[in-house]
User: Which sequence fits this backbone?
């Protein structure tokens, strides 16, 4: 009997075709729903068995017998199932595998819900059909094989379609049975690895409220709906939707109803939108159509006679109806029968052209042979994997066109080399030819990170990545990644760029000018020393400081050493020599000018008031004690500070984001004492020199010293201001320039005027001239 859902049948062996009894006992009671496609599958099974029985190559001298029953519903099928599991007309729950049952294998049903009912009762037989992935678990279903792909493969195709068209916001409708719940579980697990979100899910049955479902879908702004239900549920649901005048949706049909013959021709079906389906490929079975025509009403059911080809309530079912009905699963039924036949062929050792008729066939042996299947059927290599799922076959992607046909537009193969393809140009979209969109949030532009809103990852807002960060959407769409220290980026970047390493080389124009100026300073200092040495006993040289002048000029030359280490790539040694010589020897210069200023004031102003102080100063050479003390203190503080925190090469990545500025890092705290000493010397020098501003003209070195100090102070105020405002590539060039400028202040404004007098005004470089100035100052002070 065939009724509503799927049929299933059992096989028995007849080893002597001449004496076998009729075993093809079946009554077909076809209900109106889906009788065409179910009747077609039944006839496909009969055709395959008849083809094998008439074959001399497969199972020669052995014929297959069969019984077919209708699996009407979960509660009405047990009489038929109990017939299946009897042995010698007796039901034996504790069945010994060494015994021999009347049946060899079971084919069908093809509904997961129906299969769950009977599978536990026929564990020692071999069952084909059903798509639920649960049947791949061999611990629970060790004897279950199938020639249809599991729901896992079906879901994989559906997800590939969604990814292909970038549909991220979808609804999923599934039936309230093992088939639908398995599809839902697999779909939810699969999309966790993708950007697809299930915006809405509803478990539906025959009595589902389609209006409520559509309202929820519209509320969520979903444009793509996956309908994972059996054929009957789909017909009722889609029929109701057409009456509701729902438009602008994409409906994805599963293989259970994608090739339905009734729905594509239903009135108003074009108004619901676009229907894309996943289908079992249609395989033309040679000789099948002729077989259908030849078996039309072959006998009449008479009183007391059991007609084995009678279809009650099927008088209006013509061969054309059967041939044109939904061909889904027909090849799978055909394959199932041939798999069993090939397994028996191998067990009975029929390769020689004659089978071993007396060999006993046990179920577990058939299972073993089935798992090793490797034969070709209609150009398809039939094999099973370790879960006894098929290694063969493919899916086709179909589109319900305006003619009411399911047109093939793509395929999904299980060979990785040609895995998935859709010809989009064949699809007539309901959105005026444009591929519909189904998203919760518009994709972020380049350089923007997603921030999820709500529970769905598809709903988000876009945040611009700030400077110094980037976002690689292939790795992480939600976080802006900081660039490495050697890289940089502007805001909204998709990648970081390499920073350019910046430093001033000796070839730079500014470096050349400063180095030339420094060399010139050393040369002028040497020339001045020579000139002063030649005129050592003259009043100008004596009034300038005598032997102290040579110390000052020598310290100016030694201080200039620092300038040469402000250029090129910084090293530990160059960083040390950048600061140490200048801080040390410039302190000696300042100490010399401090004592020189003090001496001038002491001679003309303090000596008369404090004669004992002058005698002490002259007796103990106070000027050299002060200079030596300043040198020792400064050297000690510098060595102590550099021991704990020496200057070191430093890469500045903060000032300019696109550059790495090579410089020398210096600990200002460690050098605070040295700087304070310099400031104290400057203040003392300025104080003493200012006190002598009204001394005789030729003895008025104090004015020159004051002017030099003002120039130096102005130079370093400008540099510090520049350092606060700018710390780029050229800040160290400015530092070197400040050092050179400080050195030139003393050389040009203290020594150069005296050189001018020695060379160009020798008359002012005489003892008489100086004595005259002193006498004139004395008279003025006495008045």
Assistant:
């Amino acid at each position: 009997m065939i009724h509503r859902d799927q049929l299933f049948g059992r096989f028995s062996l007849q080893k002597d075709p001449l004496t076998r009894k009729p075993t093809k006992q079946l009554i077909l009671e076809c209900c109106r729903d889906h009788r065409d496609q179910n009747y077609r599958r039944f006839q496909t099974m009969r055709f395959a068995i008849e083809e094998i029985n008439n074959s001399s190559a497969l199972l020669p001298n052995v014929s297959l017998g069969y019984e077919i029953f209708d699996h009407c519903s979960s509660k009405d099928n047990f009489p038929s199932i109990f017939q299946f599991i009897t042995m010698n007309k007796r039901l034996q729950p504790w069945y010994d595998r060494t015994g021999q049952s009347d049946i060899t294998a079971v084919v069908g049903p093809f509904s997961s819900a129906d299969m769950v009912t009977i599978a536990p009762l026929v564990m020692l037989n071999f069952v084909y059909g059903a798509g639920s992935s649960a049947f791949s678990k061999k611990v629970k279903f060790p004897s279950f094989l199938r020639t249809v792909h599991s729901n896992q493969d079906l879901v994989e195709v559906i997800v590939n379609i969604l990814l292909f068209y970038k549909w991220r916001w979808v609804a999923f409708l599934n039936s309230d049975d093992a088939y639908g719940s398995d599809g839902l579980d697999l779909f939810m697990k699969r999309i966790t690895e993708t950007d697809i979100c299930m915006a809405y899910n509803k478990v539906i049955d025959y009595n589902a409220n389609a209006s409520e479902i559509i309202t929820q879908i519209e509320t969520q702004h979903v444009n793509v709906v996956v309908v994972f239900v059996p054929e009957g549920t789909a017909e009722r649901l889609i029929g109701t939707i057409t009456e509701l005048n729902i438009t602008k949706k994409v409906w994805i049909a599963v293989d259970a109803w994608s090739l339905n013959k009734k729905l594509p021709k239903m009135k108003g079906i074009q108004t619901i939108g676009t229907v894309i389906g996943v289908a079992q490929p249609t395989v033309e079975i040679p000789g099948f159509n002729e077989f259908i025509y030849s078996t039309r009403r072959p006998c009449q059911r008479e009183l007391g006679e059991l007609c084995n080809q009678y279809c009650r309530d099927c008088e209006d079912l013509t061969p054309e109806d059967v041939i044109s009905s939904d061909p889904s699963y027909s090849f799978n039924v055909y394959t199932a029968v041939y798999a069993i036949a090939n397994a028996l062929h191998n067990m009975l050792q029929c390769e020689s052209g004659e089978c071993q008729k007396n060999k006993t066939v046990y179920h577990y042996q058939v299972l073993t042979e089935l798992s090793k299947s490797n034969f070709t059927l209609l150009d398809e290599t039939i094999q099973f994997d370790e879960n006894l799922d098929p290694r063969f076959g493919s899916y086709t992607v179909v589109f319900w066109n305006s003619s009411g046909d399911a047109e093939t537009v793509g395929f999904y193969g299980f060979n990785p080399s040609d895995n998935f393809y859709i010809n989009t140009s064949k699809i007539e979209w309901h959105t005026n030819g444009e591929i519909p969109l189904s998203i919760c949030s518009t994709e972020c532009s380049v350089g923007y990170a997603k921030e999820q809103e709500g529970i769905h990852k598809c709903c988000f807002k876009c945040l611009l990545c700030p400077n110094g960060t980037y976002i690689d959407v292939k790795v992480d769409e939600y976080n802006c990644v900081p660039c490495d220290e050697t890289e940089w980026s502007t805001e909204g970047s998709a990648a970081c760029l390499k920073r350019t390493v910046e430093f001033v080389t000796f070839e730079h124009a500014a470096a050349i000018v400063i180095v030339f100026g420094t060399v010139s300073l050393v040369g002028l200092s040497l020339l001045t020393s020579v000139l002063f040495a030649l005129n050592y006993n003259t009043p100008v040289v004596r009034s300038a400081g005598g032997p102290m002048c040579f110390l000052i000029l020598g310290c100016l030359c030694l201080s200039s050493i620092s300038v040469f280490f402000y250029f090129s790539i910084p090293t530990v040694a160059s960083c040390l020599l950048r600061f140490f010589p200048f801080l040390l020897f410039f302190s000696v210069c300042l100490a010399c000018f401090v004592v020189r200023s003090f001496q001038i004031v002491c001679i003309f102003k303090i000596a008369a008031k404090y004669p004992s102080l002058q005698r002490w100063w002259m007796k103990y050479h106070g000027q050299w004690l002060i200079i030596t003390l300043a040198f020792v203190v400064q050297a000690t503080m510098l060595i102590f500070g550099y021991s704990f925190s020496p200057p070191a090469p430093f890469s500045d990545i903060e000032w300019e984001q696109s550059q790495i500025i090579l410089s020398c890092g210096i600990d200002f705290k460690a050098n605070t004492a040295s700087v304070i000493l310099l400031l104290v010397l400057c203040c003392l020098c300025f104080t003493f020199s200012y006190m002598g501003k009204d001394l005789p003209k030729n003895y008025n070195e104090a004015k020159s010293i004051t002017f030099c100090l003002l120039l130096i102070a102005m130079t370093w105020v400008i540099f510090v201001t520049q350092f606060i405002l700018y710390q780029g590539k050229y800040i160290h060039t400015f530092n070197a320039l400040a050092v050179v400028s400080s050195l030139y202040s003393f050389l040009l404004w203290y020594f150069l005027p005296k050189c001018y007098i020695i060379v160009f005004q020798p008359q002012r470089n005489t003892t008489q001239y100086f004595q005259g100035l002193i006498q004139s100052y004395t008279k003025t002070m006495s008045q």
About this structure: The chain has a mean pLDDT of 81. The chain is about 40% helix and 15% strand.
